[in-house]
Amino acid sequence: xxxxxAGLMTELEPEDFYLLxxxxxxxxxxxxxxxxxxxxxxxxxxxxVDYRLDRCMSRDLIQRKTIQYEGYQxxxxxxxxxxxxxxxxxxxxxxxxxxxxxxKESDVLEVQSYRPLALKFHREGYTNFREVKREREYTADHxxxxxxxxxxxxxxxxxxxxTELYPDVSVPRPVDHNRHAIVMEKFAGVELxxxxxxxxxxxGVLDLVLRELSTAYEAGYVHxxxxxxxxxxxxxxxxxxxxPQAVSIDHDNARDLLERDVRxxxxxxxxxxxxxxxxxxxxxxxxxxVAGEFESVRQNA
Length: 301
What we know:
The protein contains nine helices and 13 strands.
């Protein structure tokens, strides 16, 4: 997990953020930003750049390489600090609390605000950038693509989809977005993969999940990464989260991705709740979703 930098924010001075922003701007064109370009990029004197580099390096907000030339790039902690500062300036958040969830491609933290909120930092590319660059549609046409760009585009995509789907689909309500981070309403429930449903609940919850996928399809989107790890179950129903890989229903592979989503969900219920879950013809379920006629898995059993 990337270190939570919320505790550092009061230590940082405006000129530290000028430097971080300068490095961010330089990374649009090069993986490592040449030391000589930083005064212009950060709008600081060369002497002040030296001082700010030491401060930010000591806090692990940037990193340096010296092979071929002296270059700098943001760490995820540095990128987090820039996003947090923007959210604070907008009065979106007053503070950051405990972790709510940590995954391969995101960290989710509790937010201190006037209502229960969550802050999601996208981490796409942090551990396996080449694989993400190859698989993600939003990086396909760019020659210079860094983890910073990949994470930002993932957050932009997810925020866009959440804005389009909420409230018709049971997704987290988006509140704000900056760089690689999204602030959203904190939702209740337990991850489906960790929930314990009784036999009278299992098929009903399966139907609820598939209805959300059907409603999302009617709204123009396929989740494209569905599993038991991005559905929360509560007394109020289900919430489907993690939408950065969503595709439009006009996408060439939309039906195949929808079929994979449905198969993943149905397979999970067949494994964990084999007795109450009926045998389901996945293709028939997909046909009904596409036609806007899905009602229950029992009609396709």
